[in-house]
Structure formats: structure tokens, C-alpha cells
Amino acid sequence: MALLPGNTVPTFSAVMDSGQPYMPRAGRWQVVFFFPKAATTHCQLQARRYQALYAEFQALGVDVVGVNSDPRRALMKFRDVCRLDYPLLLDEQRRLSQQFGVQDEQWPDEPVRRVRRETFLVDPDGVVRHHWTAVEPGNDAQIVLDEARRLLS
User: Which listed site, 41, 45, 84, 143, has its alpha carbon 20 to 30 Å from 77?
Assistant: First the structure.
């Protein structure tokens, strides 16, 4: 079951596509967006829209992080293609997708279950303030930014 608004995000550890450990920055809001497959145009569109608005998120004190279960090499290529400045978290073992409750049904011809395209806005105390399930890749970043502005004003 997915985390709902009001739920606290469980403490987690993750590794970024750079190979370095990821630690959320204290006192900051956070957007955590899950995307199913790095080598697709929809996922690239979503990631690029977050990059286009990244400075606006940062100005509000909101960090952005993408999560995917593809191998590290695929995420490194994804980062280069999309020219991303924010962290991408590796979830090959599907621990984060299980903790957030976003694992999808197994796709045809896929050996493992992928994540659903879902986005969470988390406050500095680790509480989910908003959870989007019907995510449109081209609109997600703007919708989340608008909600962050509303909550932080």
C-alpha cells in the first residue's frame, strides 16, 4: 500500500547513480518522483521538466530526487541524456519502491516488477504532504511546484 498524505516516510538509505550514498538534507522539503523505465521518452520528459524547474524548486527550499529500479549504468546514461542536476536514486533491489508502496504489476516480457509513475511531496519532518498517483510526465513538475508554492506561502 502506498504512503498517503499524513504518513511519515520510513527512514531509508539509498545510493545515487554516482555511486555515492544519498542523505536527504535536513530542514528541506523534498519531491520524490518514481519513474518506471529510464530509456523511455515519457520518463525523459518528466525528468527534463523537473530539471527545467529545478532552480524554482531550490529557491523554495525544495529538493528534487528521482527514483528508478534500472541498473546504475542505465541511470547514468539517463542523467547524461537529460542533463540532470538533481540526484537519481538506484532502487535495483526495490526497497524504496516497497517502502513507498509504488510497485506495479509485472509488465509483459519484463523479468521484474517496475515502479508506478508516482510523486510524493514530503515536508522537512518526513511527512507526506501530497501524493500524486495519476502522474502525467509533461505536467508533473509544474503541478508539484504549484502545490509546494501553495503550502510554503
Answer: 143
